[in-house]
Design goal:
204 residues; Fumarylacetoacetate hydrolase, domain 2; four-stranded antiparallel beta sheet; 13 strands; binds magnesium ion
Length: 204
């Protein structure tokens, strides 16, 4: 399986990092080794001094597809979860300055914790307006709704599938809203989808 991550998909997040708004979805990959095993803490990696959290809705692809038309994209996913796109912002900044790929900043081991449970699309109050949030040490850190995305889930699926075949079990991180920030050792992150607690993580 592969993990596809969308960058700059919320206006206010693009602004907070001084990035231009994209004309098409920007995406990159994380390998399967970026998943965090069940009940494991996130160990702060020693190659970075600035690890940021990015809380994101995560879509699971349910069948193989290529060149998917936007109008049919909804049939390629029926479950949504939540994840953290951990980012070594210091390394990413250096990569960006030099025009280098982002892998060392984005694709490292355990950089993509995903909730164990997913919510079925039909169980959402409104699939066009999926609310999610993350609390850092008990305080609101990020909150948004899928309505605020620049590119919708269906547009993302259609776009990405022009370039790479999507397969059952692939995960798409759909981008983070504003409010990204640093994590420190001993921080606790709790993620909610609608009002359901989906994932709890500790930084060690
Ligand atoms: Mg992200």
């Amino acid at each position: 399986m592969k993990i596809i991550c969308i960058g700059r998909n919320y206006v206010n997040h693009a602004k907070e990092l001084n990035n231009p708004l994209p004309e098409a979805p920007v995406f990159f990959l994380k390998p399967e080794s970026a998943l965090l095993p069940k009940n494991h803490p996130f160990f702060y990696p020693d190659f970075s001094n600035e690890i940021h959290y990015e809380t994101e809705l995560v879509v699971r692809i349910n069948k193989v597809g290529k060149n998917i038309q936007e109008k049919w994209a909804y049939t390629y996913w029926d479950e949504i979860g939540i994840g953290i796109d951990f980012t070594a912002r210091d390394l990413q900044r250096k990569c960006k300055e030099k025009g280098l790929p982002w892998e060392i900043a984005k694709a490292f081991d355990f950089s993509a914790p995903v909730s164990r449970g997913f919510v079925m699309k039909q169980d959402l109050p409104d699939p066009e307006n999926i609310r999610f949030r993350m609390e850092l040490n008990g305080e609101a850190a990020q909150a948004a709704t899928s309505k605020d995305m620049i590119f919708s889930i269906d547009q993302i699926i259609s776009y990405v599938s022009q370039f790479m075949t999507l397969k059952m079990g692939d995960l798409i991180f759909t981008g983070t809203p504003e409010g990204v920030g640093e994590v420190k050792i001993s921080d606790s992150l709790v993620c909610y989808l609608e009002d359901q607690k989906m994932m709890e993580l500790t930084v060690k």
